[in-house]
């Protein structure tokens, strides 16, 4: 468990301590079952290939899709796949588009309430930006002692593929901005490829988190770090989406700009 909120956070390892060659041969312990939460809005083209790719590769894994009434029939596609995957694939439907942050919180709460055997819960994009093969490295980080494993584009070995220079500069600038305000030693604080040990999420005060966009990603890492949990960044290859359209917009950017100082000033109380 993490320390009290007033305790000094433990040092964070900036990258996976094992070499790339050794990581390829490490296999996660099947006794450590996990669930990936995947929010969706108009991701039918992507979810129908992502879900089977993950469940076939990791036979102990479960997936919860949180769909915000996608007009393209994303939820229908998930229901069709449930016939094959049974209780390894779950669907939580919401009445409308309500933001990334609230989708993840709804998903985390559902898993904590309904899947008592799950020992870690993860975040992953539906658009294939996060490669299924990189999930293994994040799971190994948990097995090696991390409380939170962060798929990082900006530690040695991490990279971004097919992003325009403007997006790279925006993302890099956000990372510098977050570290300046918070002092949190994370190189990729906006990463959406993250695994949390169950006990970490049981301590996070979800009712105090109001963010809808990428500020939510920053908040989750900040709170875990502030409560004394061990964060470890693992290098990943981030690939820009091929199908569908990005959800990035100005309101998400402004929320992050104003949200970071709020994180520092807010009085957070752990559960």
Summarize the model shown:
This protein is an alpha/beta fold. The protein has a single domain (20-265), classed as Alpha-Beta Complex (Spore Coat Polysaccharide Biosynthesis Protein SpsA, Chain A), CATH 3.90.550.10. It is built from nine helices and nine strands.
Could you characterize the architecture of this molecule?
Mean pLDDT is 86; it is low at 1-26. The two termini are 12 Å apart. The chain has one domain (20-265): Alpha-Beta Complex (Spore Coat Polysaccharide Biosynthesis Protein SpsA, Chain A). The chain contains nine helices and nine strands. With 271 residues, it is α/β, with parallel strands linked by helices. The longest helix is centred in the middle third of the chain and has 18 residues, at 165-182. It has helices spanning 20-25, 44-57, 74-85, 100-114, 132-143, 165-182, 198-203, 215-226, 250-265, and strands at residues 34-40, 61-67, 89-93, 120-123, 148-152, 159-161, 194-197, 231-235, 237-239. The protein is globular and about 50 Å long. Helix 3 (74-85) links the parallel strand 2 (61-67) and strand 3.
């Amino acid at each position: 468990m993490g320390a009290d909120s007033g305790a000094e956070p433990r040092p964070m390892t900036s990258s996976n301590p094992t070499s790339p060659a050794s990581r390829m041969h490490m296999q996660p312990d099947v006794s450590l079952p996990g669930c990936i939460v995947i929010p969706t809005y108009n991701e039918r083209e992507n979810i129908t290939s992502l879900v089977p790719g993950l469940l076939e590769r990791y036979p102990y894994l479960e997936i919860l899709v949180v769909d915000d009434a996608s007009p393209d029939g994303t939820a229908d596609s998930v229901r069709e796949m449930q016939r094959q995957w049974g209780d390894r694939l779950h669907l939580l439907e919401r009445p409308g588009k309500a933001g990334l942050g609230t989708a993840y919180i709804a998903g985390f709460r559902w898993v904590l309430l309904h899947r008592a055997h799950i020992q870690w819960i993860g975040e992953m994009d539906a658009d294939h930006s996060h490669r299924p093969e990189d999930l293994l490295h994040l799971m190994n980080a948990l097995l090696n002692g991390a409380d939170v494993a962060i798929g990082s584009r900006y530690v040695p070995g991490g990279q971004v593929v097919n992003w325009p220079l403007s997006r790279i500069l925006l993302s890099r600038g956000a990372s510098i901005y977050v570290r300046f305000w918070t002092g949190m030693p994370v190189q990729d604080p906006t990463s959406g490829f993250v695994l949390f040990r169950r006990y970490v999420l049981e301590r996070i005060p979800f009712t105090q988190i109001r963010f809808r966009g990428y500020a939510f990603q920053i908040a989750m890492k900040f709170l875990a770090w502030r409560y004394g949990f061990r964060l470890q960044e693992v290098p990943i290859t981030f690939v820009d989406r091929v199908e569908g359209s990005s959800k990035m917009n100005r309101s998400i950017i402004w929320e992050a700009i104003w949200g970071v100082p709020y994180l520092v000033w807010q009085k957070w109380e752990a559960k």
